Amino acid sequence: MSSDMSQDDLVTSIRFRYENIRAQIAEASARSEYSSRAVKLVVVSKAQPLEVVQAAIEAGITSFGENYVEEAVQKIDSLRQSGVEWHMIGHVQSRKADQVVANFALVHSVDGSKLAGRLERFCGELKRKLPVLLEFNVSGEASKFGLPAWDESRWPDLLAEIDPIGVLAHLKVSGLMTMPPYFSEAEKARPYFRKLRRLQTFLQEHCPWSDWSELSMGTSADFKVAMQEGATFVRIGEAILGPRPKKREL
Ligand SMILES: *Cc1c(COP(=O)(O)O)cnc(C)c1O
């Protein structure tokens, strides 16, 4: 975003892209075999400066996704009055669990029982129930977070890590999340979305303490393919807010 762009121009351009993406989501939804489901859009604001998020709120966006706890909490504190909803979609270190519990509506990226236990503890202190999704690494890419789920023959091994999360009184596990490898061609991400959906079926069978109904998958690059494979949350950043500035420009 060039710095000489006025805040009004910023609002106008974000509103235009937001409406455009929403129309694409509605169209993809109408065509998909899952058309009865409402697909929820989380607008990813990581690495975007506060002015961009303010403009996005003015453009009518009400649900934001952030990856880094400190960065997110700064924005959330500044925008407390706006009443928008924040989703944690990035890796959370256990020692930051208290800040996550205090600031987020939903955590997409619970990747183990240790983090779940810490979230449970702080939820108990704040007397709140926290909806969460479990993040899975279905590609085996070393750079990706998530419970190791690339080898389907080893899915039963995951149950020892997942079942203890089901007994935590303050966490409501409502589904699965994944981030496939990046491909310039969206179609190549399809096998990973399918694999997450198969894992959903596996968990519905083996961990019936949750309905596992939510599937958080799909970004700017591949949300339509993710929707064809049953996404209930799509997480879209750059296609709506524009390119993320490089870290040093923040
Ligand atoms: C950055 C990010 C997104 C959004 O990516 P865009 O390419 O900006 O749409 C979605 N999910 C996660 C986990 C991310 O880190």
Quick overview:
The protein is of the alpha/beta class and 250 residues long. It has nine helices and nine strands.
Pairing-aware structural class of the strands and helices? alpha/beta
**Number of distinct beta strands:** 9
- CATH second-level architecture: Alpha-Beta Barrel
Mean pLDDT: 95
Largest sheet: 9 strands, parallel
Provide the low-confidence segments as ranges.
Answer: none
Proportion of residues in helical segments = 40-55%
> Radius of gyration, rounded?
18 Å
Number of domains: 1
Order of helices and strands: HEHEHEHEHEEHEHEHEH
Task: Walk me through the topology.
Blueprint: H1 7-31, E1 40-44, H2 50-58, E2 63-66, H3 69-78, E3 85-88, H4 97-103, E4 106-110, H5 113-126, E5 130-137, E6 147-148, H6 155-166, E7 171-177, H7 190-206, E8 214-216, H8 223-228, E9 233-236, H9 238-241
Parallel strand pairs: 1-2, 1-9, 2-3, 3-4, 4-5, 5-6, 5-7, 7-8
Helix pairs in contact: 1-2, 4-5
The protein binds pyridoxal-5'-phosphate (PLP).
